[in-house]
Design a protein that fits this description.
heterotetramer, A: alpha/beta, Rossmann fold, eight-stranded mixed beta sheet, three-stranded antiparallel beta sheet, 11 helices, 28% helix, C: alpha/beta, Pyruvate-ferredoxin Oxidoreductase, domain 3, 4 domains, seven-stranded mixed beta sheet, 21 helices, globular, binds thiamine diphosphate, binds iron/sulfur cluster, binds magnesium ion
Chain lengths: 350, 350, 626, 626
Amino acid sequence: MPAATLPTLTPKDFASDQDVRWCPGCGDYSILAQMKKVCASLGIPREKFVFISGIGCSSRFPYYMNTYGFHTIHGRAPTFATGLKVARPDLLVWVITGDGDGLSIGGNHLLHALRRNVDIKIVLFNNEIYGLTKGQYSPTSRLGTRTKSSPLGSIENPIRPITIALAAEATFVARTIDVDVNHLTETLRRAAFHKGSAFVEVYQNCKVFNDGVFEYTTDKEVKSENVLYLEQGKPLIFGKNRDKGIRLNGLEPEVVELGKGVSVDDLIIHDEKAAEPTLAFVLSRMYHPQFPEPVGVFRAIERPTFEDLLNRQVEDAIKAKGRGKLEELFQSEDIWVVEEAEANGPAALD
Amino acid sequence: MPAATLPTLTPKDFASDQDVRWCPGCGDYSILAQMKKVCASLGIPREKFVFISGIGCSSRFPYYMNTYGFHTIHGRAPTFATGLKVARPDLLVWVITGDGDGLSIGGNHLLHALRRNVDIKIVLFNNEIYGLTKGQYSPTSRLGTRTKSSPLGSIENPIRPITIALAAEATFVARTIDVDVNHLTETLRRAAFHKGSAFVEVYQNCKVFNDGVFEYTTDKEVKSENVLYLEQGKPLIFGKNRDKGIRLNGLEPEVVELGKGVSVDDLIIHDEKAAEPTLAFVLSRMYHPQFPEPVGVFRAIERPTFEDLLNRQVEDAIKAKGRGKLEELFQSEDIWVVEEAEANGPAALD
Amino acid sequence: MSATAEAMTKASLSKQRHIEERPEVVVRFAGDSGDGMQLAGTQFSNASAVFGNDISTLPDFPAEIRAPAGSLAGVSGYQIHFSSYDIYTPGDRVNALVAMNPAALKTNIKDLEEGGILIVNSDAFTTSDLQKAGYKTNPLEDGSLKKYRLVAVPITKLNREALSDLKLSPREVDRCRNFFVLGLVYWLYERPLEPTLRWIKEKFARNPAVMEANIRALKAGYSYGETLEELPVQYRVPKAKIAPGRYRKITGNEATALGLVTAGQLAGKTLVYCSYPITPASDILHTLAEMRRYGVVTIQAEDEIAAIGAAIGASFGGALGVTGTSGPGVCLKSEAINLAVMAELPVVIIDVQRAGPSTGMPTKTEQADLLQALFGRNGESPVVVLAPASPAECFTLIIEAIRLAVSYMTPVFFMSDGYLANSAEPWPIPKVEELPKIEIKHPTEPNEDGQFMPYKRDHRLVRPWALPGTPGLEHRIGGLEKEDVTGNVSYDPLNHEHMVRTRAQKVANIADEIPPLSVLGPETGDLLVISWGSTYGAIVAAVERAQRKGLSVACAQLRYLNPMPKNTGEVLRRYKRVLVPELNLGHLRLLLQGRYLVECVGLNKVQGRPFLVSEIEEKIHQLLQV
Amino acid sequence: MSATAEAMTKASLSKQRHIEERPEVVVRFAGDSGDGMQLAGTQFSNASAVFGNDISTLPDFPAEIRAPAGSLAGVSGYQIHFSSYDIYTPGDRVNALVAMNPAALKTNIKDLEEGGILIVNSDAFTTSDLQKAGYKTNPLEDGSLKKYRLVAVPITKLNREALSDLKLSPREVDRCRNFFVLGLVYWLYERPLEPTLRWIKEKFARNPAVMEANIRALKAGYSYGETLEELPVQYRVPKAKIAPGRYRKITGNEATALGLVTAGQLAGKTLVYCSYPITPASDILHTLAEMRRYGVVTIQAEDEIAAIGAAIGASFGGALGVTGTSGPGVCLKSEAINLAVMAELPVVIIDVQRAGPSTGMPTKTEQADLLQALFGRNGESPVVVLAPASPAECFTLIIEAIRLAVSYMTPVFFMSDGYLANSAEPWPIPKVEELPKIEIKHPTEPNEDGQFMPYKRDHRLVRPWALPGTPGLEHRIGGLEKEDVTGNVSYDPLNHEHMVRTRAQKVANIADEIPPLSVLGPETGDLLVISWGSTYGAIVAAVERAQRKGLSVACAQLRYLNPMPKNTGEVLRRYKRVLVPELNLGHLRLLLQGRYLVECVGLNKVQGRPFLVSEIEEKIHQLLQV
Ligand SMILES: Cc1ncc(C[n+]2csc(CCOP(=O)(O)OP(=O)(O)O)c2C)c(N)n1
Ligand SMILES: Cc1ncc(C[n+]2csc(CCOP(=O)(O)OP(=O)(O)O)c2C)c(N)n1
Ligand code: SF4
Ligand code: SF4
Ligand SMILES: [Mg+2]
Ligand SMILES: [Mg+2]
């Protein structure tokens, strides 16, 4: 996708003239800022970007980007993006969604877009809450979460966005954090460069209705104990002093301290390119406080994209039988010709 | 769910008076026959059974069962079942669905019913095709499948029902085969006895539009090489002479022949009760012809059901503050009383 | 001289004040979202109700969750209409406006009547806040407000002074400004302080400093009123003639929720409320989620389809399945509603309408879903459609919705809207023993020769509601066309026609038991104003005014839109002309003309706002050429 | 004596036969799903068309995929109406019925005219097959068929004998029975064998034995006709007066698909057809899926919502986004259609209506989605609604649908139905150079002071279709209400009213360019029969008959349901009475009464079947008191 000629763009070029209307302190601001940076850095002309969203606080995103944008309906953004990308493979199509938009009402479209490997970049702002409708629990809210619609605590087991994306056969799956600016930028860049569906979960703080739910991953004091940065080909090490790691025990991961008879060689080596997503699956199920939570690219493999396969069918068909013309189209096995002379029936009788 | 008093019922008692209208040779017949057997064996009165389905050939199922039944709309059966089970925890609620009904239009409801662990038994007839609409590819159809809607071959990567169910945090996940009568019966029984959502994929032959797609699992000549029966606590062995097994190589499964330096002890021991579904996930991704395909119970764990948690909230609330009465309900912080004497306003003026 | 000291001095002026009596007054509090205007408004309306006025209120929330402080988008308002006689709306024109910052002034000033009282917090008119509101010059100084009685009060300063010796952070102190201004307005309209003092004491029982702060702010504001030379007058709105009894204030969404709980108890059934959050319906879900101990179960579904699916499933099981949403959600529910039509199961669909099409203006009101409710499904799909006329009426009408659903085995639409949802009026608390029972019978025995026929109907054409779990009544239902009586799948052409007409007739039969359409005003005359839903209040008010002017005009309210009361056509024909005011482009008008062939004039407003009384009045005058 | 020998002897009788001329004939082939009746019917209708008759055909598929052999549910039928003059329907009453087994006889006999020819395969009337069809006694023997001219032919036996020396399995031999009976009917109606022989030769080119078998069966059937003493007559239906040109037979679904491909080429655009399979619309998807080399792209979406989402997304990108479905699918698409209304993007929604409500009778026809198309969305949501009148007209009208969608930036509904979808009629193959171009302009430059305003409209109120990828025109659209001109989100009340009315006016403006409503018959008179969609054929036929009887009756067909032609009200008022026949309970009638206040009489049939000509005729007579 990224082109060779680099128009010199700055993040500012990507700012639309609309006032940004998120609550003060909302994590969305940081994601917006980083996205502008990433877009400016890709060497792609501004008019080639399209941001498509559903409904939610996060889904207001396109209004703030000075690119093409489409704020659609709740949960359905991937469907619009699919049609657009099929019609216009030349565009870089981003989908912005939330945990409600993308996993509650829109879970099925997400799943099918990923399995088809449509070349769209899906960024899911996970704040574990419905922000726009003023604070109900979402499918990612933790058990027991008290919200307006669950005053006695939520009783629904949450789903894990990354796990779902992997089960949906996604070719690119990553996670990052709203305020982890560099990591966020790098992750979005990787998504942009991936050829095929990219799925990025962003831990996003909802200041108003779910403040601090990801604090353990952002608080300077504790975050290095709670976040595991995935790096391709590198062992899974974490901790303030990088003295802890993740080891496999059978099929189960376990936290180990390095040094006490445990060496780096015992640790899992991250492999985002593994043909089978088993490791990614294991990582997707490591959750605080038992485990540090992995961020970075869980999976990045290659598979033909939906629109390429589709357009290849068109090309192959044309190659095989030539481009269809209307004259041919109207042919059929049984054509008959009425000559002037033949038109000799009687007038209608009763 | 199963009760102590056993009404003596026979499979025939479960046959409704409606003509069964599947195509001759359809795999659905066998599933129907086995289901009647299982129902008769559970010791549950007939009136306690409810079969709920969506739309599809498979979804005609309820008409043929002499129980309560609801043939609903396409893809939404789990939602009706959820409402019913919440209202009526005393009933044994089955959901009958197809690969199109349950994974195409209805994928999201399936996912959410499973994650909530509503105590319903979902049986998905996977024939890798849309039968009722006369043969279009489905989300489980293999790449390249030629159908009416994919005359040049399907370009959509299939999803695996079991993998999706696991990602959805299902507490019971199993697979069986339409004509593997005993296994089918046993699997349905296990599902019936599971407390919580049960998901059962059944390989089902569509005689008319996708004949033979699972022949490698049913053909007497080859099936023992292609099917792996999962048994709790037992090593993963298969093959006509039970001379092959599945071993883990890191996180990846591999087929090994027993004897040549490989012993049963090297094989994976099946554990459906593992807290984490990693093994189940690995098994769910073993596909023909690389691997034998596992059938049986992939996962069976315990977690409180949705309706229990919900009804517990009701009970707890009543315990804490007493059963609500309308008099109380109408109270509010600011009630005022208008006495007869006070009603002294002037007539309206303009 | 400190501001307070200054105030004290001015207090001597209070002698010169006089008190004017007013039959009704409209006050609006407006400020930044953080300024606590909703609270001030609520307190004011409670105080007015307790005092004995009739009241009607309307909040105006910002569309954003929390827009930047001081921005136009962040303005939050609350309007109260209180009176000495029956009122039906929150009022057309504002008599007194409180504007806590420039943005609030900017967005609200146009509604203030000429000569109206305008109380502003002058401390908030800083350069930066003026800029945020888009003011180039300070309106307090540039003369642009001279049409109004401007009362510029340095509220921040005065409030800080009043609270200076309390151990509170500056932020906590400033948070009390709403009570300061509330006190001032209480003084202006002679409101009793007690209800609010009581509320403060209960609310902040655990935080004595804050309690004290709010009490002081309220009292300081009140006292300050005495000193105001700009306002040498107080207003008195006498008590209204209100039927004796116990009252509380209630919004449409609250009344709907309470009505649902009540219906559940009256029917002796579990209420299963299944919903996916959506503005402006979500509060019904929130309220009901707190009602577990009333045997109420709520399910927050994954989407609107799942919500109605669960509701219908619950009904199939014998509970009261109800789903609530707004217009976009109705789109998604239509396929399942159709299933309930075919399966003939009870389900109530609450549509709290908002401005459309599409996402539209989610926080704004509109009445443009009526034809969708009636016709928004494939095939011939008759459903019952009801529409409450006022917030309090939501209570009785939602009970009626449930009653019709279960007694006719049919989906019932309940058409509320954003205006009803959030506006409040006094609600006479019903006596429980006077509420009607909802009788439901579930068969326990076969109904034909030892067999159970799920589609064997009674004289009203209603089929039996047999519950799973009942021995011997096992049966199957579904969305395919069914054979008459047996309920088996049938493709028979004549059976289909019979069933289509039977389903239609069953719903039509409801007209036999609903009250006839009654008119307010002369039984025949020059003009009938006919309406449905939340426009009722403005229309009654306008029609009553016109009647007092001697005009031959009556009004009628359709609470039953399908079926309509049997005499509807006849009523329409008794008047020379018919006016149909609606917050849409003419839904009811199309129906009335299409059904009764009576020419109707439309008055159509599609602005996301309710009618003003004056708008209706003008149209009446125009039609009657006054 | 073998059956063949017997036949030979009888052949001498043929001298006595005579030939009768008939202006039109209706034949129906009926048999088990496995009996190849669809093929026989298709061949017969092709042969008739090639011969020079006008034709109209209607298949009748069983509802089940493959019901048990011999069962009532498994009967498959194909009806052909062929004539020497213009015809519009597949015919009311069947003149000759072929019944290949008892089940086919049972389900079809009621449509055979009294005295009609009934050809049965007597070999199939075995005890077991009689039982499967629910016959207690053999109808061939019990006298119950004496109203008809029964021709009992041992087809199985005769066919086996004719093919006895071929190396084929018994099953393969029996499969040729349809050609045997086809030959017989060809003889009866003097059809040319050549087209069918040609077809057989092409079809079975790789299987000479089967080819030979079918040829022999066909000829044997034909010869057998000569020997039949029960049928001492042959019928001749002269050629019809048909406009010269090249023709083919086409069904509504085929015509729709071809029209879509054509529109794509006329517009120079990629057609992106997005659909989720559903009866009776799926065949459009199947046909288009074969059209890759015409630059057609099909997406089989995960559901109907995704399908329209993808279609709208494609349109946003500048392709022709089209989605096709049936009623239940329209329910699911309504929210997204509303988005397209708000975003003002072109999209065509094909609704191949079927019998509802809910799942209803999926394989049966109905016209009960009209009000859903018009009103089935929240808020004020104007869309264009078109309805083709005949199978072949689907071609031109779907092109018109595309043209209106792209030229007015609006969703357009195309209301086909199950009857149009599957019935066939001759289609004059258009000359490519005579087809209209579809002009589309995408802006490339800013349209206001160097800025691009996505909602700046032209004189028709249409906004520009600016495509992503165009430098300098970057803009955002969505479902929230938009500010006039700029397209920015706006909650301004007056702006909302303006936009709501503008969107409505834009669609209303289309009336300026569509043809006025024309009538067939007198310009004024006693009765106007007005209709929409597939009922056209039966209505024209009935009205023409009534006119020939001297009645003052005209008919008019509404191809544009929204907006309606400008003169619609005026046309209605020119007749003393107005009749609206519909396959629903009165959708168009409500609209006409509601919009034009003209009283309309409904003729409503809801049986999953089209009108018979006679049903319309009777109603006309009744209204005109003939
Ligand atoms: C069909 C429909 N149903 C419901 C809504 C109301 N709604 C808007 S956003 C939203 C959820 C938002 O949650 P999420 O996707 O997590 O986004 P966030 O606001 O948290 O960024 C809901 C329920 C809607 N707009 N449309
Ligand atoms: C809303 C809606 N869309 C589409 C259909 C048409 N439809 C009925 S069944 C079906 C798919 C059936 O496939 P599957 O679930 O695999 O069931 P099977 O027939 O193979 O058992 C479809 C597309 C429908 N009935 N309703
Ligand atoms: S509600 Fe939460 S997610 Fe939405 S803008 Fe405010 S802080 Fe952000
Ligand atoms: S179409 Fe296939 S799945 Fe459906 S009944 Fe026939 S064989 Fe079974
Ligand atoms: Mg969220
Ligand atoms: Mg299937």
